[in-house]
């Protein structure tokens, strides 16, 4: 990357970023209602943040000034999306960006930075991006405070080639870890646009997930068919994505094995259909593919319904947000509740404490409690009664730094 490109990145950061850096003095937040991320609700509450960490959570006191008076709003943990393609974007021609369309690495990086800012301002303070090589510099820049954005975990490039031998797969898992991947993404089935059939053998999945486990890495597996889901579960993979053709039998098996399940309800399909002209004609984004996504909408909502009623199944929350969907991440929570029948508080927990646990960050984020990182948002309304309130974000704090508030401090 040239010095000119670095100057462009710095200029972009200046234009979109609030004042960054540690806020060492105590920040006092007065909340009208708190949803703690674990299913608990607190009435009027005072939260004290110090050094990027929640110091105390206590009943509100009428004495003493509040740095942020959020008494009209509901405060909850920063939201977490375990499947967000933060780098996916539309290029200058208004088409979905693919390799060979003339964009540079800088173009891609700037687009990712813009998406990250949009996602953060919508209340999503942590995401997992599965993934792209460009995620790593974006992740690191955000972590250093150079750019505003959610905390990012990335798989870097996923593993998908069905011709790979088990030994080659193990070597690639080791390579991804050496390259700085936070987890491993594996494609065990075809896209929903291609029917979703299993594409990796049981032996390949055992090699990939086994090696990742040995190295202490979480595995996220793309699987639509019940056969692929079953194979990934038996291979000891950590988390299964999508599962449009899931059966009760395979969901019960996942519950028995402790496998996380992250079904999408509607956003990813509707976004593709809404932006059809921007995707149409690229790869399997064709008439057959779009018809498959249209058919998947009621099936996907029903999978959420069945999954949320499966005893012991660990339900994560990821949107599979791609170009056109960044910042709309809460829409799938609305779908889960209204179309999938998931109780609102349960859906909120999926996007907070449960996602934190799924990502191995349960002792740091996802809960409003003393000692946790100060990732806090406020929304207009009570999402435990009206889930659409999660789309009305008025306050965003990540790591004790405020990026959005109803008024200037």
SS field, number of helical segments: 13
Order of helices and strands: HEEEEEEHEHEHEHEHEHEHHHEHHHEEE
The termini sit apart by 38 Å
Count of discrete structural domains: 2
**What spatial form do the alpha-carbon principal axes imply?**
globular
The total strand number stands at 16
CATH class of the largest domain: Alpha Beta
Fraction in beta strands: 15-25%
Give Rg in angstroms: 21 Å
Unreliably modeled segments: 1-22
Mean pLDDT: 93
In CATH, what is the homologous superfamily of the largest domain? Metal-dependent hydrolases
Which bin fits the share of residues in helices? 25-40%
Structural class: alpha/beta
Report the biggest beta sheet as strand number plus sense, adding barrel if it closes: 8 strands, mixed
Looking at the overall shape, the CATH architecture of the largest domain is Alpha-Beta Barrel
CATH topology of the largest domain: TIM Barrel
Keywords:
409 residues, alpha/beta, Urease, subunit C, domain 1, TIM Barrel, eight-stranded mixed β-sheet, 35% helix, globular
Task: Please explain how this structure is put together.
By secondary structure, the protein is α/β, with parallel strands linked by helices. The chain has two domains: 12-78 and 367-404, Urease, subunit C, domain 1 (Roll); 79-358, TIM Barrel. Helices cover 35% and strands 21% of the residues. It is built from 13 helices and 16 strands. The protein has helices at residues 3-16, 105-121, 135-144, 166-179, 202-214, 226-234, 248-257, 267-274, 276-279, 287-308, 331-338, 344-350, 353-358, and strands at residues 27-35, 41-42, 45-50, 53-59, 68-77, 79-81, 124-129, 151-154, 183-187, 218-225, 239-245, 260-262, 314-315, 376-379, 393-398, 401-404. Strands 1, 2, 3, 4, 5, 14, 15 and 16 form an eight-stranded mixed β-sheet that branches. Strands 9-10-11-12-13 form a five-stranded parallel β-sheet. β11, α7 (248-257) and β12 form a beta-alpha-beta unit. α8 runs antiparallel to α10 (287-308). Residues 1-22 have low confidence and may be disordered.
């Amino acid at each position: 990357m040239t010095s000119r490109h670095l100057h462009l990145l710095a200029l972009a950061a200046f234009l979109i970023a609030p004042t960054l850096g540690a806020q060492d003095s105590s920040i006092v937040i007065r909340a009208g209602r708190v949803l703690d991320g674990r299913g608990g609700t607190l009435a009027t509450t005072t939260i004290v943040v110090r050094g990027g960490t929640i110091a105390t959570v206590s009943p509100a006191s009428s004495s003493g000034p509040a740095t942020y008076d959020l008494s009209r709003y509901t405060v909850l943990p920063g939201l977490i999306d375990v499947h967000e393609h933060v780098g996916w974007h539309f290029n200058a021609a208004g088409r979905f960006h693919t390799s060979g369309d003339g964009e540079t690495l800088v173009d891609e990086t700037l687009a990712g930075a813009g998406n990250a800012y949009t996602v953060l301002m919508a209340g999503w303070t942590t995401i997992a991006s599965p993934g792209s090589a460009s995620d790593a510099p974006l992740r690191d820049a955000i972590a250093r405070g150079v750019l505003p954005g959610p905390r990012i975990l990335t798989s870097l490039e996923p593993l998908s080639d069905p011709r790979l031998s088990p030994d080659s797969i193990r070597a690639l898992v080791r390579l991804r870890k050496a390259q700085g991947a936070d987890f491993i993404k594996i494609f065990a089935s075809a896209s929903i646009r291609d029917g979703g059939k299993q594409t990796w053998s049981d032996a390949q999945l055992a090699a990939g997930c086994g090696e990742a486990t040995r190295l202490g890495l979480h595995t996220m597996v793309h699987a639509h068919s019940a056969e692929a889901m079953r194979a990934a579960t038996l291979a000891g993979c950590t988390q299964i994505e999508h599962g449009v053709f899931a059966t009760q039998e395979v969901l019960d098996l996942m519950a028995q094995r402790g496998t996380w399940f992250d079904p999408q309800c509607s956003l990813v399909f509707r976004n593709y259909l809404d932006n059809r002209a921007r995707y149409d004609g690229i790869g399997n984004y064709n008439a057959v593919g779009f018809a498959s996504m249209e058919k998947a909408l009621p099936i996907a909502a029903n999978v959420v319904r069945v999954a949320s009623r499966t005893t012991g199944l660990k339900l994560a929350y990821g949107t599979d947000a791609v170009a056109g969907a960044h910042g709309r991440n809460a829409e799938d929570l609305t779908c889960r509740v209204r179309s999938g029948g998931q109780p609102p508080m349960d859906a909120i927990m999926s996007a907070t404490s449960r996602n934190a646990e799924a990502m191995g960050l349960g002792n740091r984020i996802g809960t409003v409690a003393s000692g946790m990182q100060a990732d806090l948002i406020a929304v207009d309304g009570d999402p435990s009664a009206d889930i659409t309130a999660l789309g009305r974000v008025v306050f965003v704090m990540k790591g004790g730094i405020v990026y959005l508030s109803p008024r200037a401090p």
